[in-house]
Design brief:
Distance between the termini: 23 Å
Shape: globular
Largest sheet: 7 strands, mixed
Number of helices: 12
Strand order of the largest sheet: 1-9-8-5-4-2-3
Strand content: 5-15%
Bound molecules: pyridoxal-5'-phosphate
Number of strands: 13
Helix content: 25-40%
CATH superfamily of the largest domain: Type I PLP-dependent aspartate aminotransferase-like (Major domain)
């Protein structure tokens, strides 16, 4: 039987094992935050931002960031209908209303025109999610935000390695968030990061992240407000430090894998993740969207992949199709594209032979 190809796996070397072991042996007492501080510093330097707070997840980072923006009941937050549920969950937890708008047909990211149409006096934030590493139209979104006095938040969970007009994804909006879940380009098992260049917002989120204890508070065990507990552990941060020391190698391999797919699939009636002029795509997740006329469905793709023992990961369902929301099929691209798409495996140790096996499945479907 052919070996199974997983859609993602982390790349863990002796460096990660060594740092995690050191944290487990020595990272206690006065050293209990040492790797966390180092992880935040390395990430700030990589992203070229002033402030970073490591968290237990991207979801937690988004929750705290939006809480610090004062988002609450009666407020509306605009985001793309195409998304992982993690982006909308904090909006709901804060008691605000998500407004789902359509995506662009080429980047699969939020459509700025639809965003502006959806703004009301209650709009408190716009979330730009760089889906699968593809970049949102940040210039247009920032201009819309400035016109209406609404902050643009970047969910860059999937966008390590992506660059928009010389700025790294996540460093452009009011704040950015990242995920270091085991499936991501940089991993700590579970983990995340909140980043911003705004000192006031940073201090607010820092207090929130520490159970509401203000930085200037000298009284022990005294909370100044109700906060959150979304901290990363020192052992996770140790793994993160090793990953960040290898970040160029990890991103570069993602790009190599994407380009191998691009060559292997050329000539087929499909679209892959775009890389528009002035941008670099970190290609976290190579994805194929078959042309409408090719008549190839998600079901066919899932069957063909599973017959060849290849993980088949579906393109995100539209959030408005989930039972807890009101279906909005007028978000045409968000509802149509997933029906003819599939994510492709991509991880550091994926071999050229594996990629050939995957591209052959797609070529054969096309011919059958
Ligand atoms: C776009 C997006 N946002 C948020 C998240 C949530 O990240 P985490 O699992 O670290 O909370 C993910 C994770 O998969 C994601 O893909």
């Amino acid at each position: 039987m052919k070996s199974k190809i997983y859609y993602t796996k982390p790349s863990i070397t002796e460096k990660e094992v060594e740092y995690a072991t050191d944290a487990a042996r020595n990272g206690w007492g006065e050293h209990c935050y040492a790797y966390i501080g180092r992880f935040e510093d390395l990430f700030k330097r990589h992203l070229n931002v002033k402030y970073a707070i490591a968290t237990s997840s991207c979801t937690g980072a988004l929750h705290m960031g939006m809480a610090a923006l004062g988002i609450g009941p009666g407020d509306e937050v605009i985001l793309a209908d195409t998304n992982w549920v993690a982006t909308v969950a904090p909006v709901i937890h804060l008691g605000a209303k998500p407004i789902f708008v359509d995506i662009l047909p080429d980047t699969w990211c939020i459509d700025p025109f639809q965003v502006e149409q959806a703004i009301t006096p209650n709009t408190k934030a716009i979330i730009a999610v760089h889906i699968y590493g593809n970049l949102c139209e940040m210039d247009e979104l920032i201009a819309i935000g400035e016109r209406h006095g609404i902050p643009i938040v970047e969910d860059a969970a999937e966008a390590v390695g992506s660059v928009y007009h010389d700025k790294r994804a996540g460093s452009i909006g009011k704040f950015g968030t990242f995920s270091f879940h085991g499936t991501k380009t940089i991993t700590t098992g579970e983990g995340g990061m909140f980043v911003t260049n705004d000192p006031v917002l940073y201090n607010h989120v820092l207090s929130l992240s520490n159970h509401g204890r203000a930085q200037v508070q000298s009284k022990q065990f005294w909370a100044d407000m109700i906060g959150f507990k979304y901290k990363i552990s020192n052992i996770q941060a140790a793994i993160g430090c090793a990953q960040l020391e290898r970040i160029d190698e990890l991103i570069s391999k993602k790009r190599t894998i994407f380009n191998l797919y691009k060559n292997g699939l050329s000539g087929l009636p499909l679209q892959l993740n775009p890389e528009k002029k002035g941008t670099i795509n970190g290609f976290w997740m190579p994805t194929v969207v078959f042309d409408q006329e090719a008549g190839i469905t998600r079901g066919q793709l899932i069957d063909a992949f599973s017959q060849e023992h290849i993980d088949a990961r579906v393109f995100f369902w539209p959030l408005s199709s989930l039972d807890m929301f009101k279906a909005n099929e007028s978000n045409h691209n968000a509802w149509d594209i997933p029906n003819r798409s599939i994510n492709l495996p991509s991880y550091h140790d994926l071999s050229i032979m594996d990629i050939d096996r995957i591209t052959k499945v797609l070529g054969d479907i096309q011919r059958s």
